[in-house]
Amino acid sequence: MADMTPPAGASAFLAAHGWSGVVSPVAGDASFRRYFRIASDGRSAILMDAPPPHEDPRPFIAIAEWLRARGFAAPAIHAADLAQGLVLLEDFGDVRLRETADASADGALAHYAAAIDLLVDLRAHPAEGLAPYDRAVLHREAALFVEWYCPAVGLDVDVAGYRAAWDAVFDHAATDAPVTVLRDYHAENLMLVGEGGTLGLLDFQDALAGHPAYDLVSLLQDARRDVDPAVERAMIERYRAATGAGDDFLAAYHVLGAQRNAKIVGIFTRLWKRDGKPRYPALCPRVWAYLERDLAHPALAPVARWFDDNVPAALRGDPAALTA
């Protein structure tokens, strides 16, 4: 379990910016970052601990300010100490799309529609100052599957053939009009803020300039909660209706879905094997289900053949359970 004791410099940092009071841990993510809520005199804020050299908070700050300047609800930055990796953020509260959607199917549809509309709005703003989500990055991420999952379950696979299969399909994910891709745009990173339930954005520090289908995949093929396939289809069509996206968009959606899901299976295995975080392998069966759905699209035929030839159905699942 991660140490949730505030970092040594936190008290002095907070005091220097006029904050003191009760400090309590807040659920974090899969990174080295930790979060604490500061409650003082009827106000609250979030302290992000992004310790160097493992983390660099500057991309988060830059993208937060870029989003806010364009009217999107990213947390305001109250203060920062980059040398210590400490950032004091606006507190968006605890109401996540995840739990709200789980509580009400009808409510979930409205919130997912709002999340789609946000992506439509985001694409109207040219991606600026972001590295490209290009073929090299897609290959590097996809490789996490053969680097971590396959060895974990005892598979000796055709690595060169894996790369060649992906190379044969990545043209579908190319775009001449890249958008800001937040990359972890899913129900646990979307907060419902205020009485109107404005969608607050979190965990966007790894944003790149890439294909607009990617964040739809993050949202609609969510590794952490089941998304009804009917909701997935309806939201894809909502996005296409608003943007005029054609069948090539659907091909890109499934190629990027397969790539993302293969990557996530690799990452969740790495979090277990390397980082000692045992809860992540149990999420893999859901991700496998999304991956197999994507592989059924004709655009993925070369990759689907590789999986058929190299990964038996009996070894597609929770890597910890498969090797227990």
Name the descriptors.
324 residues; alpha+beta; 5-stranded antiparallel sheet; two-stranded antiparallel ribbon; 12 helices
Describe the fold and architecture:
- This protein has 324 residues and is α+β, with helices and mostly antiparallel strands.
- Helices cover 45% and strands 13% of the residues.
- The protein has 12 helices and 9 strands.
- The chain has helices spanning 10-16, 58-69, 97-103, 105-122, 135-152, 159-167, 213-220, 229-243, 247-273, 284-295, 301-310, 319-322, and strands spanning 22-26, 34-40, 43-49, 77-81, 86-90, 179-181, 190-193, 198-201, 208-210.
- The strands form 3 sheets. The chain has a 5-stranded antiparallel sheet with strand order 1-2-3-5-4, with helices on both faces. A two-stranded antiparallel ribbon has the order 6-9.
- The longest helix has 27 residues, at 247-273.
- The two termini are 21 Å apart.
Q: How would you spell out the order of helices and strands?
A: HEEEHEEHHHHEEEEHHHHHH
Percent of sequence in beta strands: 5-15%
Average of pLDDT: 94
Taken from the alpha-carbon principal axes, the silhouette is globular
Q: Spans of 5+ residues with little confidence (pLDDT < 50)?
A: none
Number of helices: 12
Strand order of the largest sheet: 1-2-3-5-4
Distance between the termini: 21 Å
Radius of gyration: 20 Å
Report helical residue fraction.
40-55%
Largest sheet: 5 strands, antiparallel
Structural class: alpha+beta
Total strands: 9
